[in-house]
Amino acid sequence: MRVLAFDTSMGRPGVALLEVKRNKASIIDMAYVATNAKQHHGLRAEIIEAFAISFIAKHYVKGFDVIVREDYVAKTSKTGHPVYSAWGSCDRALNKFGLNFTTPAISQSAVKKAVFGKGKAEKWELAQSVREWTGYDGEFEVDDMSDAAAIGLAYLINEGIIKKTEG
């Protein structure tokens, strides 16, 4: 089973591809792109779409069983517009391949609860939990990469596809 997971933002979105074999998840690939806050939202959205297209194209041949993203509920249009623009960028990238998000988005607290065990976790704690779940021993260049992996893991955990092993 292959899970494509997006941690979507306008500033530095991340994406992770996880694969499950014998009830164990591993990270196949991760990436992120940083946009410049001085650029207009339209250009930043295009950069994110191009980034997502590139990542999807790299892995499209083997397919994706699940495509998921983190949920976000804005308190104001000022905070919501950038995130929703980035969501649209990822939607457009997926649509170019005939794909869509296949499952409802997962809230940030639900991701942390599933992967870390509590709805509140520091970035480093979540990254460490991602390592424990996947056996990944490398460094995450940015938090957005470990966050994307955590979103994919949360789906797998919540669906009972993987379980934490003792020891």
Give your account of this protein's structure.
- The chain is globular and about 45 Å long.
- The longest helix is centred in the middle third of the chain and has 20 residues, at 77-96.
- It has a four-stranded mixed β-sheet with strand order 3-2-1-4.
- With 167 residues, it is of the alpha+beta class.
- Helix 1 runs parallel beside helix 2, helix 3 (108-116) crosses helix 5 (143-158) and helix 4 (123-134) packs across helix 5.
- Strand 2 (14-21) and strand 3 form a beta hairpin.
- It has five helices and four strands, in the order βββαβαααα.
- The chain has one domain (2-158): Nucleotidyltransferase, domain 5, CATH 3.30.420.
What's this entry about, in short?
With 167 residues, the protein is α+β, with helices and mostly antiparallel strands.
- Give the low-confidence spans: none
Give the name of the CATH architecture.
2-Layer Sandwich
The structure class reads alpha+beta
Helix content: 40-55%
Cα distance spanning the termini: 24 Å
Q: Taking strands numbered 1, 2, ... along the chain, how are they ordered across the largest sheet?
A: 3-2-1-4
Number of helices: 5
Supply Rg: 15 Å
Number of domains: 1
| CATH topological fold name | Nucleotidyltransferase, domain 5
**CATH homolog superfamily:** Ribonuclease H-like superfamily/Ribonuclease H
Quick one: biggest sheet?
4 strands, mixed
Silhouette: globular
Mean pLDDT: 95
- What would CATH call the class? Alpha Beta
**DSSP strand count:** 4
Task: Please give the oligomerization state of what you see.
Answer: single chain
Order of helices and strands: EEEHEHHHH
Beta content: 15-25%
